[in-house]
Amino acid sequence: DATGLKPSVVGDARGVSDLDRSRLRPRLLKAHQAIRTAHERGELGFIDCPQKDPESILSWAAKKRAEGFREQVVIGIGGSSLGSRALYEALAEDPHAGEGSADGLRTHFTENIDPVGVARLFDRLDLSKTLFIVVTKSGSTVETMSKFWLAFDRVCSELGEDKARAHFVAITGPKNDGLRALADHYGFDSFEVPTNVGGRFSVLTPVGLVPLALAGIDIRGLLAGAKRARECAALPDFEHNTLLQITADIFTLYERGVDQIVMMSYSDQLLPIADWFRQLWAESLGKAKDRGGNSVHVGMTPIKALGVIDQHSQVQLYMEGPNDKLMVFLEVASFGRELKVPTRPGLPASLAHLAGLDFGDILDAELQGTRRALQEAGRPTSTWRFDGVQADDLGSFIFAWEFITALMGELFDIDAFDQPGVELGKKLAHGLLGREGFEQWAKLAQSNADA
Ligand code: PA5
After folding, report:
1. Per-run averaged pLDDT (10 residues), the chain, 451 residues
2. Which of 185, 189, 245, 275 is deepest in the core (most CB within 10 A)?
3. Ligand 1 geometric centre to CA of 238 (Å)
């Protein structure tokens, strides 16, 4: 199929039949139309991302690397970081080892504001060779801007303000009085996050493409894969549009009480993509809606798991606990690396069959065993197969799930692109941190704290 992936939902007692799928067909077609209409109105800019030409970003990145930088620190959080981190960890040669080079910068991501983690990272950087990529669409996220200011202060102190400018790149909205204003003031190189692309849908904009290009990742391949999934997403008929079918399957399961979705990667490299997915799914679809004065709460809790590690930790629950989870397996056909159990004599008879086996084949057998066992137990499963861990397939995967999320939003009849539930906590924190105009929130936070 056009996504280059062959996902299927399989199950027994609670699986999805062709009949279920066709029952939802009219609703899916309506949802598809609603997305098309919104896109024609200029909304849902994520749909345009695969069409964008990456060449200007690639040539800018090559020029920047030629200036002698060897490391980059991506400062961002949520949608401004999770996607680029996942793709870097999946696609970089060896993401946590070695020194960067003129072909690809060694990349660090800092998301949290924990002083220990931040200090550890900042203290070991060679600032003269480090580029800071500051990513915040709003331009004002507290965690991101605090760390940007720390980095700027350190680089200015070490190299002087004039030289420091070249060490900072801003990726932010076209207009804001935070990072955009500072980038203009200091003359940083900068890129725009399009206003019609939401944070968690923005990995295929400069938010992801700029740091990935600097790291030497194949962003052309990423976009080519995304473009294939986009073509699949655009197909108007249900029978050929895999993404409409997958969404119908997921929604059918949801209506039957499956309200958790476990993304279980059988590849270390792909595990961080489950973090990206968790945010996309949770923040987009976990919503309260008002129905005649009553709040109705919708959403499916996304969970990440790693095979085989979680076979020894979570699978007991998945097998025999409540039947409320859809398992989404990430399977890799070829790891591109052979590693064998030595044939050296000495293994006891009960383990002798292991001699000479490839680690990738062991992992695969573990996946097949676990999946089959879950199916035997009547648990719904779905598998996304990757030929290898490569940019093209990941581009398809990303666009596919962005589109499925948008469709699910329509089926839930909610706005998948806002996040009102995180606003109150932010206001209270701003109040506690002494931001002007937020005194009432400080009071509320304080009263709660005292209670
Ligand atoms: O999806 C979203 O909009 C959020 O998760 C944001 O990405 C996150 O809050 C970071 O926001 P910003 O890019 O404005 O710093």
Report:
1. 51 64 93 98 98 97 96 98 98 86 94 98 97 97 98 98 97 97 98 98 98 98 95 92 91 94 97 98 96 91 98 98 95 94 96 97 97 92 91 94 98 96 90 93 81 51
2. 245
3. 33
Closest approach atom of ligand 1 to CA 144: 15
Separation in Å, CA 236 to CA 18, 33, 36, 42, 350 = 19, 9, 10, 20, 55
312 is annotated as an active-site residue: yes
297 is catalytic: no
96, 185, 312, 436: the catalytic one is: 312
Residue pLDDT, tens place only, 57-115: 999 999 999 999 999 999 999 999 999 999 999 999 888 877 888 899 999 999 999 99
Distance 348 CA to ligand 1 centre (A): 54
Q: Respond yes or no: is residue 283 known to be catalytic.
A: yes
**How much distance in Å is there from the Cα of 386 to the middle of ligand 1?**
29
- List Cα–Cα distances, 270 to 148, 305, 394, in angstroms: 29, 11, 9
User: What local confidence, expressed as pLDDT, does residue 13 receive?
Assistant: 43
Q: Return the axis-axis angle of helices 219-234 and 206-214, rounded to nearest 10°.
A: 150
Task: Write down the catalytic residue from 71, 143, 283, 410.
Answer: 283
Query: pTM for the complete prediction?
Result: 0.95
For the chain, how far is it from start to end, CA to CA, in angstroms?
57
Minimum-distance ligand 1 atom for the alpha carbon of 141: 15
Q: Which atom of ligand 1 is nearest to the CA of 279?
A: 5
